């Protein structure tokens, strides 16, 4: 998610939690909302201090994603937060995973960290068997279970490319625009890729984002992407809402 700012500061996975007016606007506002919705309910109070942009977030519909587990549900993996409490009979860290009792993991971690815990097959929470902290991608890799999304904030579009969180950067770039090339989805052949980026512009499109970025100002937007596509030809309306602009191309690429 990117803004149209000249500065490249404050890029990263998590936003600061101050209440400045700047955080009411643009991508930073939307990013915080998306982060909040993706976080399991039992972790939100600890991970999200009170913030003006979250005043009405309770009116939004819940995602009810697979990692948003109820207290009575057992699953091979659960999201949790590390606590200051010390384990009584073992070395490790106490983690609140949203069950009736906290669990202990075998790693020593700082308090207040969001972690994914492999729960194992032993459902007895009274035993001293330590659980393991694993990568947040482990549930998807092991069981194919969708395990939420990551929100990464960039202050401008050039930072999306230069500060890519993936090793080696994106190996295929696709831009979407009403000014893009019209190709039937059945005739579209994508190369084998490791990390694919699909970019969506704001109301003025990706052209405006590129024009306002001093690092890309002299470049043609079509030269920045490997493919620059119009995935919704003959759209009828002058603009497409962001939530529609996301779903239409994803169906197109499917």
UniProtKB/TrEMBL annotation:
One of its GO terms (biological process) is methylation. SUPFAM superfamilies: alpha/beta knot (SSF75217), Nucleic acid-binding proteins (SSF50249). It comes from the Eukaryota. Keywords: Methyltransferase, Transferase. This is Methyltransferase C9orf114. Belongs to the class IV-like SAM-binding methyltransferase superfamily. Pfam families: Methyltrn_RNA_3. GO terms for molecular function: methyltransferase activity. The lineage of its organism: Eukaryota, Viridiplantae, Streptophyta, Embryophyta, Tracheophyta. PANTHER family: CLASS IV SAM-BINDING METHYLTRANSFERASE-RELATED, METHYLTRANSFERASE C9ORF114-RELATED.
